[in-house]
Amino acid sequence: MTQRKPMKFKYFYQQFSTHISIIIVAFLLLSLLFAHYLENLVYENKADELISYGEAILSDIKEAPLASDRIIDQYSNVLSARKMSFSMFDRDGNLYLVNNHGPAIKNLPRSDWEKVTKGQTIVVQSDYKSFDQDGVTFVVLPYIDHDKFYGGILLTSPISGSIKMIQQINKILLYTILISFGVSFLQSWYLSRIHVKRIQRLRDAASQVSAGNYNVHVDSSNYDEIGELANDFNNMVDKINVSMLEIESLENRRRQFMADVSHEMRTPLTTISGVIEGLKNNMIPEEDKERGINLVSQEAKRLIRLVNENLDYEKIRSNQIHLFKEEIQLTEVLEIIQEQLGLQAEEKNDQIIVDASTDLFVLADYDRLVQILINITKNSIQFTANGTIWLRGKANHNHVIIEIEDTGIGIDADEVENIWRRFYKADLSRTTNPYGEFGLGLSIVKQLVHLHNGDIKVFSEKGKGTKFVITFPKQSSLK
Fold this sequence. Notes:
Layout: H1 11-63, H2 68-81, E1 85-90, E2 95-96, H3 110-117, E3 122-127, E4 136-145, E5 148-158, H4 160-210, H5 225-280, H6 286-317, E6 325-329, H7 330-340, H8 342-347, E7 351-356, E8 361-365, H9 366-382, E9 388-395, E10 399-406, E11 424-425, E12 437-439, H10 441-451, E13 455-460, E14 466-473
Parallel strand pairs: 7-9
Antiparallel strand pairs: 1-2, 1-5, 3-4, 4-5, 6-8, 9-10, 10-14, 11-12, 13-14
Helix pairs in contact: 1-2, 1-4, 4-5, 5-6, 6-10, 9-10
């Protein structure tokens, strides 16, 4: 049995119906309350007017009982002009001194009559049957003298005029409601359309992101939640964009790394394989066998160095390298580098010169400092023939500075920044090395210098040599 899909109720209609229903309910409640208040106000004013006339009549008659006929005639003329009438009754409810259209009190409910006999004033806003009239507002005022009930006065006023006034006011109120409803209808429709369009733009943008387009932005603001949502959406897209660029960059670097490693390993492996096959099949003359074995040994060492450098580089990048810093006499380290690489320098007919003060100390990890200096010095030897390599040490107020300068072939200006890249290959014309590579050495050097909170710069000019300047922050001697 197929499950029925729930009926959709568009957000526009939800917004619109919510606004309109709230406005309608609010207007209806306000209209009812206002009409009720107005009606009560009209009847209360009418009742107050009747009570004031009744009290005046009773007061005048009490002061001049012999002139009661004249008083009644006077008030009859005044009240009839205002479409009011009155009647007086005795303690038994019998009427006397009734003016031209005075009402009878025979239909007054017993409970109301008992209230009157106890001195209470009865006010009825409207009644259509009790006094045989189409509808009146009436008041009954008791006449009490020395706490004794002698009768009272009944005053009435037709409510037709009041009803007409209330109807007229209600009519005006109805027109006002209709006009307000029309304006509210248009405003609600307009606002709902604006909100729905803004949400639709967010929805379209989200669809584009889900389809793989991360260069989409929506109009944003800070004056409501939808605008803030648009801001958050744009921030999210920007972060996705950055992440995708990083992923793409990492993927490109991964491909490049695999290609570089494959290329780097192919040559020594090919050399080792060729020499071993030659030795195995006796294709190498006896006098060249020792040279072939030495070549295999060198290429094997080169492979080991390549693997170790890769491991080192990845450890540094993943923060797995821990430095053990200590105060190191710089002259001693530079002389050790001079001694270790002296034979390599002699092979290229190079001279290594140390120039540093014996009282100069640097705060660093000893093994990593030696690794930094050996890598750079080897690089200088590699690209210098029949020249000089200086290992200098000096200091200023805040830093210890190490300079490694050679008189080699130098580096093109457009290649200077590229030497820090892994497996970067220099122009083959600039070196007698068959591969012309910087390898991983300088990439590791830069990472290690940064781990020491230091800085490294290179200055070079084609045909005029290269100078590496390493700067370490100076710190107080260890106690």
